Structure formats: C-alpha cells, structure tokens
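Appendix B, example 12.
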Amino acid sequence: MWGKVKEQLNLELDNFGATDVFPENQVGKMGKTAMKILSLKDEEFYEGMGKYFVTLAKDLGYEKTIVQLGRHIRDFFLNLDNLHDYLKYTFPRMKAPSFFIEDEDPTKIMMQYRTRRRGFHYYVQGQVKEIAKVLF
C-alpha cells in the first residue's frame, strides 16, 4: 500500500524518522491518498492513525513519559499541555493542541480539545480512546 501512495504522490522517501520535520500538508496528502486506496472514510482512517500513534509511542519507549503525566486519566489530560510545551523545544514549528477538562464525575470526563489545525479531531479521538484503553 505504501508503494501505491508513494507512486501516486511521486514521493521518494521510504522512512520517516521520529524527529524529522516535513511539510504538514504532506501528511494530509498521504492520508487522503491512503484513504482512497483503502476505501476508508476520514473518521475511520484518522481515528485508526491516532490509535496507531499511541502504539508507536509505546514501542519507541515513550510509555514511561506518558504514564508520568498522571496517575489517572484526568490528571494525564490536565498535564498534556505541559508535555506539548516541552516538545516545542524539539519541534519549534509544532502547532500544539490544548486540552481542558470541562466537567467530570466518577464515570465520565467532558473534555475540550482546541487546536489551530484543521481535520485532526478524529486523529485525537483515536489517541484518547487508545490511551484510555491501554494506559488507564
């Protein structure tokens, strides 16, 4: 499948390093091309990518850092903005989102997600679901 995406977009790269910086619109183009090839809708594709990102972060050894953000999922999201602020030193052009706990009770959390980037809500939805399932 990656070969088809590369061919349709005339890409030469085979690998992307964890700290590589590349144009943001390139990710969108790759996503749209992959969705066409796989016959997936935006929600399904990007939510799946969000879930995969959590798995990738764990596999790359970031699980300890992620877990240190909070003992409970509420604390995790309250501290996530701090992690994004720290990551700006490595990725100075990063457009970090912000998370805010609007309401909570023992069975649920109502959270706001804010970003200047368009089209990432399904991606973040996948990340939130996977983090809740895997880490909490």
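The chain has a mean pLDDT of 85. The longest strand covers residues 98-105.
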